[in-house]
Amino acid sequence: MGPDTPKSELRSRRFWRSLLAEFFATMIYVFFGLGASLRWGVGPLNVLQVALAFGLAAATLVQVLGHVSGAHVNPAVTFAFLVGAQLSLLRAAFYMVAQVLGGVAGAAVLYGLTPAAIRGNLALNTIHPGVTLAQATTVEIFLTLQFVLCFFATYDERHNGRVGSVALAIGFSLALGHLFGMYYTGAGMNPARSFAPAAITRNFSNHWVYWVGPILGATLAGLLYDFVLCPRMRGLAERLAILKGEQVAEGQAPPEPPEEPMELKTQAL
Fold first, then answer.
1. Residues of the chain where predicted confidence (pLDDT) is lower than 50
2. How many domains does the chain have?
3. What is the sign, positive or negative, of the torsion defined by CA atoms of 140, 142, 145, 147?
4. Distance of alpha carbon 176 from alpha carbon 218, whole angstroms
5. Which of 39, 42, 55, 176 gives a 20 to 30 Å CA spacing to 62?
6. Residue 212 lies in a domain
């Protein structure tokens, strides 16, 4: 396989399909996750219902779109893969933009379909009154840390003999984070999920917690897995080549060659 370049990556149909998949997957994830978190009756919110909704949504999307884009559906996950030099800087940047836009689209659709009396704050992540900002940020770090570790382990192409379902493992990991984190921070774990209702309701109170916590947690998970728990024997030059898009990471599908101009196809016939 010849060397790849960022320019040729942009010409790849697979690259743009991956972006569409990330946009669509994040839209679906936010739509169903936030929708299951709305209060339709009196009484406390059913935490188990919310945890299962987000977990099942993630599992479904990994099963359906994992082979297309990896179904990161989360800027923190994408950033962790970038830290581990498992995708190019260009792809990571485009993925994160697609995820944020997809999340906003999902929240906007939900807002339009939900009665005004039910919308509330559209399941906006909020910090429990007794939890400090430092505590909330630390909780988000731990929630995302365990989730991204699960992501890395289940997606690791070196473990082809692993037992169990990748999609279910990721879904259970996400559900676990919600079962604990809902009481502290509402369980953000995903900047795109947290940004979507904040943008729609224009409420960015303490919003930085839901970016800093997950990004730090994801970074720690990427470094811990790729350099300590299950190191990848790559040199600095190889890692830089992958980040620049000059080399394809292990397990990542190579870009499609650019399509031949119609004139050449006609001459060939």
1. 1-4, 254-255, 257-258, 260, 262, 264-266, 268-269
2. 1
3. negative
4. 16
5. 39
6. yes
pTM of the entire structure?
A: 0.88
Looking at the domain assignment, is residue 262 inside a domain?
no
Residues 75 and 192 sit within 8 Å (Cβ to Cβ)? yes
Q: Which long-range contacts (CB under 8 A, 24 or more apart) does 89-95 make?
A: 89/243, 89/244, 89/245, 90/6, 90/9, 90/10, 90/245, 91/9, 91/15, 91/18, 91/245, 94/15, 94/19, 95/18, 95/19, 95/22, 95/69
The CATH number linked to 69 is 1.20.1080.10
| pLDDT tens-place string over residues 8-59 | 777 788 899 999 999 999 999 999 999 999 998 877 889 999 999 999 999 9
3-state secondary structure the chain: CCCCCHHHHHCCHHHHHHHHHHHHHHHHHHHHHHHHCCCCCCCCCCHHHHHHHHHHHHHHHHHHHHHHHCCCCCHHHHHHHHHCCCCCHHHHHHHHHHHHHHHHHHHHHHHHHCCHHHHCCCCCCCCCCCCCHHHHHHHHHHHHHHHHHHHHHHHCCCCCCCCCCHHHHHHHHHHHHHHHHCCCCCCCCCHHHHHHHHHHHCCCCCCCHHHHHHHHHHHHHHHHHHHHHCCCCCCHHHHHHHHCCCCCCCCCCCCCCCCCCHHHHHHHC
Nearest to 223 by CA among 29, 82, 13: 82
Q: Domain containing 63: what range?
A: 6-250
Please classify residue 171 by burial: count the beta carbons closer than 10 Å to its beta carbon, then call 0-12 exposed, 13-18 middle and 19+ buried.
Answer: buried
* Structural domain contains residue 268: no
> How many residues in the chain?
269
